[in-house]
């Protein structure tokens, strides 16, 4: 590079002294081995029979150096011939990174490098890349890592093999976390807020005890948000710093200036005259409760989110809210929210990129906004979540760009497809034997987003086969069409004296009735035969015969999750009712479920709380048929074998009229950095089943079953592997437990 600048200075001087110009008749190039003469002429923007001054030659020289193809260039004119002698930079044949086992970490390093395969090798850029690698590994906590390089040159082909040898060493651990300054809150509380943790022997598998710059920056944001949500409006979290202790450990120190505690004095909305104030009554009611309360950032954000929702529901597409904060009387804050019409933007075009197998209409039909519609941020984000929820793409990357006019937006959606076919094998091992399941699923049949699912479940007494078809955006609408065919045979003649065979068919649809409220009506039919032996109970013998049933089923889902798949915030409420249209027993089934998702203080963890209740009752004088009775779903009570819990008549598990379950679970942070494809969660399940309509003496309402355990999901070379370990906590002596369950699948 120094040689380059010397040449430039020399040429400037030479051309200043010799200011004449010449017409070149031809171009003579020497030293080039890889690049053609024509390419060099093109790069230098050289034209024969053109009058060239010394200044023009200087421009050619700079243009050629800027290509990065040349290590040295000499240029001159002799006898009207432009002579260019070059020394080419070698081409990088391949770049290797050694010493990093984690695949994602290794790819991140390679992607960050300025030098790339099949590009010219430049020594100065390589030195910058070395420093870049050092910063990357330092950011990941490897403060004592070393980077060396090896160059293997092929002089014949003028190419280079570039190898970075990385010695990561031990990751720096956090020995202690200290808060100094005007903190006003105890260290113990602050430590629970941040993501970083002090190294302790019982945290040997925790990733948060390592020094990580990104996590420290997150800690600062978490601290600032916590203080601002507790009244400390002017809090300052000064740059955290670390002190090297010994043995590759550090002291992490945060300097906090909490300042004074502030309260809301007055919070008000300022609406345009033509806006109906009734639409904002809910917000005004909430605002009125904030007076004299501690300043809270969450409270303000809640108001702004509600304004966005109102804007969407009331078709005020083009409004925004400006926030003005004024401090009065030393520690009181006036908040004025000015709502005004914003600049009007429209969707000019939606481009779908990256799909090779999936039809474009599958993606476009997931969009709530269309070309020509007003651009709305909420609808845009909801559309992206709709695409992600299909679970047929590895990644969905949206980008909004300026259109052909100032008021137009272009939406680009880039998707990366993933294998959508799946073969699964599942098994359960418990105290009374085992269960086996097999299934084949395709989530994107013919590239149309159609879901096909066929599965077979086998236990000692039951065989169940099922086929499910689901078509989203049916007939170019927002409706989903689904149908299923089910065949079930249960044979417990030797133990309980009866067997059943059931064939069922269903047809239904699903659509969004109102904002976030989904309605799913369905018609289902079934044919069933129930046979008994002399060993069956008297009540079972009464139910022997053939049955045909027609039901109208519907469900209402109020979905306020941030996304349907892998939700981390929000909730979903579901009510389902099964109403008999034609049935000899005429059972009415009501089911309600609510699930709440919440990010836990430890930022990498997501907690889930769920309540499930179900009831079946006969609308006539008949008893609820044994095949229609309720059993606790296996997903609601792990640790117990399906159908082998609850009221019993002799040896027969007869189910119940009522079910209630509570489920608590939490994902765990990435405990093992080297195993990025491993997801671990802990859970606690509690459930009860009770009520036998034909015999009041059979009562199991007083016994709550519960279990806790660990669930793991691993992406293996042959497909996803899921398994759970469960330990029953409370149970009845007649219950049959199941401690281990696994599922192995592969995609195609």
Structure description:
The chain is α+β, with helices and mostly antiparallel strands and 748 residues long. The chain has six domains: 2-88, membrane protein fhac (Ubiquitin-like (UB roll), Roll), CATH 3.10.20; 91-167, Roll (Ubiquitin-like (UB roll)); 173-257, Roll (Ubiquitin-like (UB roll)), CATH 3.10.20; 263-341, membrane protein fhac (Ubiquitin-like (UB roll), Roll), CATH 3.10.20.310; 346-417, Ubiquitin-like (UB roll), CATH 3.10.20.310; 476-747, Porin. The chain is built from 13 helices and 35 strands. A 16-stranded antiparallel β-barrel has the order 18-19-20-21-22-23-24-25-26-27-28-31-32-33-34-35. A hairpin with a 4-residue loop joins strand 7 (146-154) and strand 8. Helix 1 (2-17) runs antiparallel to helix 3. The longest helix is centred in the first third of the chain and has 17 residues, at 123-139. It is globular. It starts with a helix and ends with a strand. Residues 13-19 have low confidence and may be disordered.
């Amino acid at each position: 590079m120094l040689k380059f600048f010397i040449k430039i200075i020399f040429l400037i001087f030479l051309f200043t002294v010799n200011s004449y110009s010449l017409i070149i008749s031809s171009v003579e190039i020497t030293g080039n081995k890889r690049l053609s003469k024509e390419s060099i002429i093109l790069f230098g923007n050289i034209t024969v029979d053109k009058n060239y001054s010394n200044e023009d030659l200087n421009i050619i020289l700079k243009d050629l150096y800027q290509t990065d193809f040349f290590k040295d260039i000499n240029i001159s004119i002799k006898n009207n011939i432009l002579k260019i002698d070059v020394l080419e930079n070698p081409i990088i044949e391949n770049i290797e990174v050694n010493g990093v086992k984690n695949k994602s970490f290794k790819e991140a390093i390679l992607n960050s490098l300025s030098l790339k395969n099949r590009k010219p090798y430049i020594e100065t850029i390589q030195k910058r890349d070395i420093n870049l690698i050092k910063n990357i590994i330092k950011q990941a906590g490897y403060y004592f890592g070393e980077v060396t390089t090896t160059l293997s040159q092929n002089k014949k082909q003028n190419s280079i093999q570039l190898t970075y040898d990385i010695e990561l060493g031990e990751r720096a651990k956090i020995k202690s976390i200290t808060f100094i300054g005007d903190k006003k809150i105890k260290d113990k509380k602050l430590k629970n807020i941040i993501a970083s943790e002090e190294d302790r022997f019982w945290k040997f598998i925790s990733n948060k005890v390592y020094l990580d710059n990104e996590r420290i920056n997150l800690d600062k944001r978490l601290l600032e948000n916590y203080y601002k949500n507790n009244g400390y409006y002017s809090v300052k979290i000064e740059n955290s710093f670390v002190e090297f202790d010994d043995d590759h450990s550090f002291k992490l120190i945060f300097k906090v200036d909490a300042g004074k505690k502030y309260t809301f004095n007055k919070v008000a909305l300022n609406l345009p005259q033509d806006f109906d104030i009734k639409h904002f009554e809910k917000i005004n009611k909430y605002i009125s409760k904030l007076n004299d309360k501690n300043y809270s950032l969450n409270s303000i954000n809640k108001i702004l989110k509600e304004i966005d929702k109102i804007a969407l529901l009331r078709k005020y597409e083009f409004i925004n809210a400006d926030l003005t904060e004024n401090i009065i009387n030393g520690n009181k804050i006036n908040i004025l929210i000015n709502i005004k019409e914003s600049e009007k933007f429209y969707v000019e075009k939606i481009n779908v990129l990256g799909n090779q197998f999936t039809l474009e209409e599958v993606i476009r039909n997931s969009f709530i906004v269309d070309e020509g519609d007003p651009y709305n941020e909420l609808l845009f984000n909801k559309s992206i979540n709709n695409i992600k929820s299909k679970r047929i793409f590895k990644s969905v990357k949206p980008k909004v760009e300026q259109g052909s006019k100032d008021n137009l937006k272009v939406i680009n959606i880039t998707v990366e497809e993933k294998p959508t076919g799946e073969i699964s094998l599942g098994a359960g091992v418990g105290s009374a034997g085992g269960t086996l399941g097999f299934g084949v699923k395709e989530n994107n049949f013919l590239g149309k987003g159609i879901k096909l699912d066929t599965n077979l479940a086998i236990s000692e007494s039951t065989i169940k086969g099922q086929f499910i078809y689901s078509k989203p955006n049916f007939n170019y609408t927002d409706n989903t069409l689904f149908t299923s065919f089910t065949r079930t045979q249960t044979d417990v003649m030797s133990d309980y004296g009866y067997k059943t065979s059931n064939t069922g068919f269903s047809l239904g649809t699903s659509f969004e009735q109102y904002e976030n409220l989904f309605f799913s009506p369905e018609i289902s039919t079934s044919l069933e035969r129930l046979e008994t032996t002399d060993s069956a109970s008297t009540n079972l013998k009464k139910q022997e015969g053939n049955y045909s049933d027609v039901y109208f089923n519907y469900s209402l889902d109020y979905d306020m999750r941030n996304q349907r798949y892998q939700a981390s915030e929000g909730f979903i409420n579901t009510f389902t009712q099964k109403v008999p249209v034609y049935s000899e027993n005429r059972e009415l089934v009501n089911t309600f479920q609510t699930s709440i998702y919440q990010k836990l203080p430890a930022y990498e963890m997501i907690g889930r709380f769920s309540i499930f209740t179900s009831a079946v009752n006969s609308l006539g004088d008949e008893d609820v048929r044994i095949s229609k009775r309720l059993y606790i779903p296996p997903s609601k009570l792990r640790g117990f074998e399906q159908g082998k819990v609850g009221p019993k008549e002799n040896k027969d598990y007869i189910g119940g009229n009522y079910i209630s379950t509570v489920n608590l679970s939490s994902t765990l942070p990435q405990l093992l950095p080297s195993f990025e494809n491993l997801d671990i969660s802990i859970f606690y399940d509690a459930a009860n089943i009770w009520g036998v309509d034909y015999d009041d003496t059979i009562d199991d309402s007083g016994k709550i079953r519960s279990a806790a355990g660990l669930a793991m999901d691993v992406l293996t070379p042959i497909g996803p592997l899921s398994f759970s370990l469960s330990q029953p906590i409370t149970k009845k002596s007649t219950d049959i437990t199941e401690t281990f369950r696994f599922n192995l699948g592969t995609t195609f």
